Amino acid sequence: MAGNIKVVVCKDADEVARKCAGMFVEQVRNKPTSVLGFATGSTPEKSYAQIAKLAKAEKVSFAKVTSFNLDEYWGLDGDHDQSYRYFMNEQLFKHIDIRPWNTNVLNGKARFPEIECRAYEEKIVSVGGVDLWVLGIGNNGHIAFNEPGSPVDSRTRLVSLTQSTIDANSDGRFFKVAAEVPRCALSTGIGTIRDARKLVLLATGAKKADAIAKAVDGAFTPDVPASLLQDHPDCTFILDQEAASKLKK
Ligand code: F6R
Fold this sequence. Notes:
By secondary structure, the chain is an alpha/beta fold. It has seven helices and ten strands.
């Protein structure tokens, strides 16, 4: 295995979600003022449901937590049902006691994207950096909307989506047709993500197996953005058996 990435293989997506939720609730129990990083997409949905369930069962309060999301579609405002702000409100924030004003999602309608992105970076620094950030992975190895070729030191910025990402997000789970998918997004950079003290990347299903194998066992290369996590000091991939099926034994 290349690099430091720790790999945990679970029997199925439900176990992935339970493990991820366990890490988040533990983090907040140990440090109630934690700064958490969240992702959107299908993969973390079960984990968010589990976080809400576990936080309630174990009486762990998120009232002092601050959160940052990875990315937002450019051109969608937070009320749009495909915006990532809307997703987070529906999937997680309304089910836990996190304070809405402590949740940060990039503004897809910002008038000046460069100012929005710089302010986001500054805000992460001003609260002391992210303690634990959960990531997904694209079929092409992207993390956040850092598509192949994104530099290891990239920061929050306006990016273009690749055709592969547009196709993946218009398969009916989110958008119905490719024409509806915004072509650009505001995305934290690989450098922004690598600054988090702890990272956990979730992947489930056979479609992710190639990207996971390249990220864990392949070269450290911007061609596979998730491989740029190989030298992170505390990065764990939590996978189901299908996503792990092409890893070297
Ligand atoms: C979403 C994000 C993306 C997704 C990735 C996988 O905030 O940053 O990188 O994590 O596209 O998406 P799903 O989980 O839908 O396969």
